[in-house]
């Protein structure tokens, strides 16, 4: 697609996430507790994501999850949500815009 100079794709442990530029958009599809992990471990992961992906001006986060409690576990209400399906599993795309976070 010719975007390799402006887009970075990687599989990484979220604990090693680093902001290495002034601006960024992170899109992630963490385990749900369906095929990978169990539900309790997935919920603990959502809590950690809320800490690691702390609001910072210039960075937006887009997270896919089927968990109706995601915003509560993450620690803040999304700026916007959109229903989508991952296969047959109903999910939400939680959108947190640059530097904003609320609940």
Describe what this molecule looks like in 3D:
- With 103 residues, the protein is α+β, with helices and mostly antiparallel strands.
- Helix content is 18%, strand content 26%.
- It has a four-stranded mixed beta sheet, with no helix packed on it.
- α1 links the parallel β1 (24-28) and β2.
- The longest helix is centred in the middle third of the chain and has 14 residues, at 39-52.
- The mean pLDDT is 86.
Would you summarize the structure shown here?
The protein is an alpha+beta fold and 103 residues long. The chain has helices at residues 39-52, 70-74; strands at residues 24-28, 59-65, 80-86, 89-96. The longest helix has 14 residues, at 39-52.
Radius of gyration: 14 Å
Number of helices: 2
Quote the beta fraction.
Answer: 25-35%
- Strand arrangement within the widest β-sheet reads 1-2-4-3
Question: Which structural class matches the secondary elements?
Answer: alpha+beta
What is the makeup of the main sheet?
4 strands, mixed
N-to-C span:
38 Å
User: What coarse outline follows from CA principal-axis ratios?
Assistant: globular
Whole-number average pLDDT? 86
Percent of residues in helices comes to 10-25%
Order of helices and strands: EHEHEE
Let me know the number of strands.
Answer: 4
Regions with pLDDT < 50 over 5+ consecutive residues? Answer: none
């Amino acid at each position: 697609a010719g975007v390799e100079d402006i887009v970075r794709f990687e599989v990484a442990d979220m604990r090693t996430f680093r902001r290495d530029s002034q601006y960024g958009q992170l899109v992630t599809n963490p385990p749900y507790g369906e095929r990978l992990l169990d539900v309790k471990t997935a919920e603990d992961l959502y809590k950690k994501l809320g800490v690691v992906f702390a609001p910072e001006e210039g960075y937006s986060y887009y997270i896919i999850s089927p968990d109706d409690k995601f915003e509560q576990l993450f620690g803040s209400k999304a700026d916007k949500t959109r229903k989508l399906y991952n296969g047959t599993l109903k999910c939400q795309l939680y959108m947190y815009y640059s530097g904003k976070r609320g609940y």
